[in-house]
Amino acid sequence: MRRFPFLASRYALALLLAVNFALLGISIYLGLKSANQMKEIVKEDFNQQQLVLAKYTAGLLEQDINFLKRELNTLNFSPSIQYLEPLSWANRMRATLASVREDGVVEILRITADGNRAFQMDSRGVDQITTGSFKDAPFLAWAAQPEHKGQVLVMPVSIDIPHYVGRLITVMAVPTYEMSVDETHPHPSGAFSGVLVFYIDAHVLAKKFTQGIQSGKTGYAWIMDSKGIFLSHPERDFIGKNAFTVRKERMPAISFDAINQIQREKMLAGKEGSGAYISGWHRGMAGEIQKLMAYAPVQLEDQNLVQENKPAISWSVAVVAPASEVEGVIHTLYTRQFYLQVIIGLVVLSGTIVMLNFRYEQQFSSSLEEEVNRQKEKLQKSEARYQGLVENAADLIYTVDGDGRILSINRYAANLFATARSSVKPETVGSVIQGTPQEFMGRTLNDIFNQKSADFHLEWLREVKETGKVRSKRHPVSIGDQEFWFSTSIVGIKDEHGEPFAYEIISRNITGRKAIEDRMINMEKLASIGTLAAGVAHEINNPMTVILGFTEHLLEQTESMPEIHETLQVIEDEGLRCKKIVENILTFARTPQVSETSAEVTGLLEKTLAVVKNTLLTKKIRLETSLAPSLPRVKGDPPELQQVFINLVNNAADAMPGGGVLKVVTALSPDRKRVAIEFIDTGAGIPREAQAKIFDPFFTTKETGKGTGLGLSMSYGIITKFGGNIIFTSYPADEYPERHGTTFTVYLPIISGPEAEAEEPQPAAPDETPVFL
């Protein structure tokens, strides 16, 4: 009986050891299975990252192709190209070539409609005219079909293009019609006149977007066309070869069925996705190497224009990396875990402890998974709220990298940039031009702002990176031909090491507020000289009263002496004019009562221009007028308006000391509530630093003794007194040597309602469409 407890103890110990080893084996099995599952998950996650990189690269390539299409259409709209003007077609092609050469364009070709002549510009900028038969060119036959008008043809890549045999050339063509207007062709015929072609080196274009891509440590990218030809690849001898055969030729012992199936069924079909395949080499290593890959299509043709039953021409971008780079990390991690499990299994002698430990790990894993899911859901909701706030904000919000390349942008910023760069005056636009964030992705600050504004932002980015401080600034910006004032803050977005890798720029458009502030400052300046103006007016009025009194007395005494009487009459008229000028100076001293008088603009301008016409002739200034007939009467005092017009004409003449052209134009505004009068000169323009102060009293850009600085101030006071406005646009000669000059536009409200009936206005004819200036 004594042996039973001993045997029971041995059996119990053996049972515990058996249970322990069984649990250890199960633990090892589950660990290996978990490692394999984790390996697949990490591979899939890595491939998804590669897919994002492939789609991003494909998107940039599509943007570049669309840019080439826009440049081709822009060149096609030029009268020099449509009419093949002898003196300008080559220069116009050369200018376009300079902007598209780095995108692979090696030649620009314009073929006439009959196919007998070709006007060429090669990659060196050398032009020539070739006579021969080009009727067999497929793109000429395509362009001649009327239904292709306005479309862009993109042909498959070929290595048999004449003069470019062996190079991967794709052709981009657009039909040319005589549609544009210039001085030589004021009435275009609209007839088909031929085809305009870009010859593009597809390898140069593809390499531009793949040579800098690296996935993982040693991964790379390549591009194939719709026929399976490599356009770009790290293996130089692969370029221009068929992707289905070149691998087998290099490594016949390896089966490439997996990659060939992906290429045939997915990539050539224009699909995106990911997968894995066996390769025979990588970065100098040979043998069977498993690779992970992701791919995305590049659409070369507009999907709306692809013919039925005809597949769209597309390229495919692939990003690949060895699977061993991902598996190596997982292998190291799970090798450590395996040894740890063995040690724990040997130490643990109690099956109960092992079970409890297993159960605890299970509960912890479940709780951890639930917590991760909760945090993920909260993060998604927070991201959605943030995206909604950014997209619907009335501020410009966009992020850029350290080189000023746009990474993201909200709709408000895209709309403002698109509207400003359209170079259309805000007065002529009923609503903003709708820009899309996608069209600005990948662009740089230099593509949006002018050089000075772009350099200002880039210098600010460097300052934020060096100091780490967030500062707000009010500053001017130039976008296209328009000037804005922004209130901007720039915040650095930091990585896990605390280094900024991107920058968030938040700008508020305060142009309107700045204009109001400037106007308030101007009004304060006007008010500040009120006392001075009143004193000057009083001191001048006293002697003027004496002069006019004695003149009137002498007029009565000399009625029988015509010559003296006439001279005295001139003195009296000029004295009354001086008195009127003194009264106008009083507008700086007090707010005058708004005059209810009215004026007929066309007649008043004709009288004014008749007075200054001889003066302009002596200064070699050609006067051109375009006065709209039957304009309504406007609010304003005729003598005061005449004074404003003379001031603007004199200022224009002073800006053209060597002669030039002065154009005076009148029209109704689009809302038909104002009459607009434009004074357009070809002078030197107003310096940019002086433009904000030209309406300030006593400010002048003229030499000492040649101006008082009151002309524009008084003109501004006269016009605004009647509810009107004066605006100007100036292009200084040092910045715009080819289109310098200044345009002043005077807006005067028309008389309407009972006032119009009392004044008997002459409205515009019903069938007349007024042109806004």
Structural notes for this entry:
Helices cover 45% and strands 21% of the residues. The protein has 20 helices and 23 strands. The strands form 5 sheets. A 6-stranded antiparallel beta sheet has the order 3-2-1-6-5-4. It has a 5-stranded antiparallel beta sheet with strand order 8-7-11-10-9. β7 (220-224) and β8 form a beta hairpin. α1 (3-76) packs antiparallel against α8, α15 (530-557) runs antiparallel to α16 and α17 (601-618) runs parallel beside α18. The longest helix has 74 residues, at 3-76. The chain is elongated, with a radius of gyration of 39 Å.
Main sheet overview = 6 strands, antiparallel
Distance between the termini: 121 Å
Strand order of the largest sheet: 3-2-1-6-5-4
Shape: elongated
Structural class: alpha+beta
DSSP strand (E) fraction? 15-25%
The value of Rg in angstroms is: 39 Å
* Low-confidence blocks of residues: 424-431, 757-773
Number of alpha- plus pi-helical segments: 20
Q: Which oligomerization state do the chains in this entry correspond to? A: single chain
Q: What's the mean pLDDT score? A: 82
- The total count of strands amounts to 23
